[in-house]
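look at this one:
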Amino acid sequence: MSANNAKASAAARTANPARRVALCVSIAAASFLEASHGAMAQSAPAPKPSWEFLVASGTLIPTGAQRQDLQRANITAAQVAYVVRPDLAITGTFGWARSRDLASIARPSIDVFTYDVGAEARSNRWSAGRATTFSPFAGVGVGGRSYNYHSPDVDATHNAAGYVSAGGEFGRGRVRLRLEVRDYVTSFKPFDGAGTGSVRNDVTAMIGLRITGRQK
């Protein structure tokens, strides 16, 4: 074997391991990409947006200066939520509380209507055993507040309102028990419409029950 052939053979032996390493890396990369693509194709699709409806009841609790004008009252609320994704929902609420005007001598009955829309951030469900789950949430929203005497001689007053909320939902099977507390800040005009406005605060605590759809 000539010197030139020996050098070529040595160079080939030196180059072969490098080629083999490059080939192995290429095969491994291709296999990884194919496996990743297959896993993505087989994984569960993202949940589609859905609707939720809930009727809740609770208590409207005036705080601060509001306690001098408004009596603590039972409240009934209807809530509709559009669940954009599992951790975010857009919620609309209409509430009706049956209260009294404490600033008037006769303490006449007065209906308190609250209507608002907000965003709700939801956490992942926590499992409390296999059967029971708990999902905390927090929200913020804006809307309005109306005070309406039962007497037709007095016009209703309308005010802007905003809230922050916190709560949680317990689940067992298809049953969901929702607990929510809202802290409202509202503009306030005297119920008879006379006088200057001010800023008031009250707290609403609600509980409601709903049934979810069957899991497919």
The first strand starts at residue 50 and ends at 63. The chain has two domains: 1-43, 50-211. The chain has a mean pLDDT of 81.
